[in-house]
Amino acid sequence: MEQQQNWSTELYKGLEIHVATLKKSGDGSDHPWDYTIRICEPGVDATAESDLLTAAGDDGDYATAEEAFAAGFKKGYALVDSLKK
User: Fold this and answer.
1) CB neighbours of 72 closer than 8 A, spacing ≥ 6?
2) pTM of the model
């Protein structure tokens, strides 16, 4: 069953960073959270095919959704910085 994603959005350097946290199903670890990121032009739906960049989490696992959101936005800022060089 596919999880419903709730996106949080921040505007950074003229682009929107969308981050959604994902709870890993069946993961018995103490850190069951990860994230996904979409970078879009302002006003574009985060679920649209027209995003500029999509990235799945990282090698880290996070204990809470809040930690995963923070890590996702940190990575999103770095991705926008690399696009805006």
Assistant:
1) 19, 20, 21, 35, 36, 37, 57
2) 0.79
